[in-house]
Automatic annotation (TrEMBL):
GO molecular-function term, one example from the UniProt record: DNA binding
Domain of life per record: Bacteria
Matching PANTHER family: ACREF/ENVCD OPERON REPRESSOR-RELATED (PTHR43479), TETR-FAMILY TRANSCRIPTIONAL REGULATOR (PTHR43479:SF7)
The name this protein goes by in its record: TetR family transcriptional regulator
The HTH tetR-type domain, residue ranges: 10-70
DNA-binding region extent: 33-52
SUPFAM superfamilies: Homeodomain-like
Swiss-Prot/TrEMBL keywords: DNA-binding, Membrane, Transmembrane, Transmembrane helix
Source organism per UniProt: Paenibacillus riograndensis
Keyword Transport attributed: no
Length: 197
């Protein structure tokens, strides 16, 4: 087992991730082999397998890492789910999807499915964390909060993905203005992030 804190291990993982990103841009996911990644990263296949089970595990890590980097600090530390936090999540999700589709060739159904699933899950976890910190639904069972976070994340993700093909797709402010009221009303939250009585 490799020591994840060792600077050499961190550097090797960074080389692997950089090689994979470059290959995604040039070749597309389905045609990339472990041999391609290893050659691009100037490592051997055994070294790759010491760090990642396969290219799917590598894709999952890159997806997660990029998502966490795009979420604004204000959202990560939010104590309640307000209009502003909702707008930031909508815009960050849309930005992430645009970047991902622009950088990577999303011609692979397996890649698109994996990325979609991972983003939805991370979005749900982010929203759920905010709900739990702020006591958005005091006294609610955990499963209720999880369901509300899943529905909210799906709505945000679905709208952000759909916006890629809209005529006014460059008007992301319009995207936030359209989606935010739907999400906030669906959650039963007023403009200050407090439950309607």
């Amino acid at each position: 087992m490799v020591n994840q804190e060792d600077p050499r291990v961190l550097r090797t993982r960074q080389l692997i991730r950089a090689a994979f990103r470059d290959l995604l841009f040039r070749k597309g996911f389905d045609t990339i082999t472990i041999k391609d990644i290893a050659q691009q990263a100037t490592i051997n296949r055994a070294t790759f397998y010491a760090h990642f089970e396969d290219k799917y595990a590598l894709l999952e890590e890159i997806t997660e890492e990029a998502f966490h980097e795009m979420i604004p600090e204000q959202v990560k530390s939010a104590g309640e789910f307000t209009d502003e936090i909702c707008s930031q999540l909508i815009l960050a999700t849309h930005g992430y999807i645009v970047d991902f589709y622009r950088i990577c060739r999303m011609s692979s159904n397996s890649m698109a499915t994996l990325v979609d699933k991972k983003i939805k899950k991370m979005l749900q976890q982010t929203i759920e964390s905010i709900f739990l910190k702020g006591g958005t639904y005091p006294g609610a069972e955990r499963y209720y909060i999880e369901i509300m976070a899943a529905m909210t994340g799906s709505a945000i993700y679905g709208a952000a993905l759909y916006w890629l093909n809209v005529e006014d797709k460059d008007r992301v402010d319009m995207l936030a203005d359209l989606v935010r009221p739907y999400v906030m009303n669906g959650l039963g939250l007023d403009r200050k992030g407090e439950e309607y009585r």
